[in-house]
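Researcher: Please predict.
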Amino acid sequence: MTELIKTLYPVFRRWSENGSVWIISDTHFDDTDRELMGYKITTEEHFKLIKETCFKNDTLIHLGDVGNKEYFKEIKSHKVLILGNHDHKPSYYKECFDEIYTGPLFVADKILLSHEPIDLPFCLNIHGHDHSSWNIAENDLNLVANIAGYKPANLATIIKLGLIKDIPNIHRLAIDKQKELANEKISQKQNSM
């Protein structure tokens, strides 16, 4: 049994209760423009890599742009989908995914999952969408399949690598901003005397 990811908000810890949490984005299975987006392997080869990584007790989080949803029926993991710009309405995926979200999802104080990159100073944004580069901003992890080696990334490993360690908490940023404003007011008051 794997270790519970305590960094996650309690409501999402169930994802890691019995297995690992894996994340991938932009599989574009069977999409006609896969090659134009830089995919060097077939849908079948790509699917095999995912199936060899994610097992029954695991959770697979897909950050959007699924392509042919039928492949995901074969994956026995708990499956979570955050819809991407190429995806259909949530109801289209209900038979293939256990949880479906239509927008960005904070899963921990410092971890935001989304399809498109979102540049925020107080979290690590794990996303897809951009097929051209590995990182887009400082607190950014792009898991587009063709950029990230076609295999899902392990969330516990991402956390253990320390990618969220130096990110300031949003509450700390707010407190620091209030202190800064208070010091400015004191300075202005002293200068006006």
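Model: The first strand starts at residue 21 and ends at 24.
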